[in-house]
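Severity: low
Component: inverse-folding endpoint
Summary: output formatting inconsistent between runs
Steps to reproduce: submit the following structure tokens with default settings.
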């Protein structure tokens, strides 16, 4: 790994554990200014205070989310987008470049790909080109890859998710983000079949913090390199405490009992 990429990866991934807690906040483009993202800087502050490893933002929110003091937190700039108002919401398009991210001081970039969508070929081409550019500049690339399209009946199917993770690795991503399959045994196979670190997505907002923590705990046991979770974190009533708990699960190998005790959940 080139030194530039190695230095940037160390700002996103913990040097000792080789794992990460990432909180994406790119939802404003997809669904508008939702709960938890009205004041971006305030939410970034809460994540940083909880010792999260990185936040993920679109280029226009980097200044709004930059911290004026306190603990630093890694920055990933998201390069692709679509809105829920589109007749084709799963068709992502590039809206920023690796060079834009460099100018903004980013530690990494991310691209979203929906495999199975009718526009899959264009999104795969975007991923391939972005991976080449990111490699040229020594910029870590996170590929968010989901199975969404007319041929896909269950986006959490273990074989499908293993395929998604492998697509990201084979096309040049340094880190792959995929849905959790729902059980340790099937997710072990996802991790084993991918040549780069795998982090889990959060999916729809869960009603139970306990259920969310169990998912994270089990994913780590299955070999996940951490998580990249948005709404289940930034819409929580106590973002900082939750991020501290996630850090315990991801970096300190907490048991689920330790996590629930820290959150004061029975």
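Observed output (run 2 of 3):
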């Amino acid at each position: 790994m080139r030194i530039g990429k190695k230095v940037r990866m160390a700002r996103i991934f913990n040097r000792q554990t080789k794992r990460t807690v990432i909180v994406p906040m790119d939802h404003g483009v997809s669904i508008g200014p939702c709960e938890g993202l009205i004041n971006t800087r305030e939410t970034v502050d809460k994540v940083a205070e909880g010792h999260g490893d990185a936040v993920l933002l679109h280029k226009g929110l980097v200044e709004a989310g930059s911290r004026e003091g306190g603990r630093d937190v890694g920055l990933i700039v998201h390069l692709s987008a679509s809105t829920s108002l589109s007749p084709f919401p799963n068709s992502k398009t590039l809206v920023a470049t690796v060079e834009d991210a460099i100018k903004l001081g980013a530690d990494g970039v991310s691209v979203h790909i929906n495999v199975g969508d009718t526009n899959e070929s264009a999104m795969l081409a975007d991923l391939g080109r972005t991976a080449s550019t990111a490699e040229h500049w020594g910029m870590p690339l996170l590929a968010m890859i989901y199975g969404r399209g007319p041929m896909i009946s269950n986006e959490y199917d273990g074989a499908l998710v293993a395929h998604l993770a492998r697509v990201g690795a084979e096309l040049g991503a340094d880190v792959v983000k995929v849905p959790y399959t729902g059980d340790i045994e099937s997710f072990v196979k996802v991790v084993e079949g991918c040549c780069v670190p795998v982090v889990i997505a959060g999916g729809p907002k869960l009603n139970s913090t306990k259920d969310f923590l169990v998912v994270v705990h089990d994913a780590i046991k299955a070999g996940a390199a951490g998580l990249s979770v948005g709404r289940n974190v930034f819409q929580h009533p106590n973002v900082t405490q939750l991020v501290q708990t996630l850090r315990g699960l991801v970096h300190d190998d907490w048991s689920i009992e330790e996590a629930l005790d820290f959150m004061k959940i029975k």
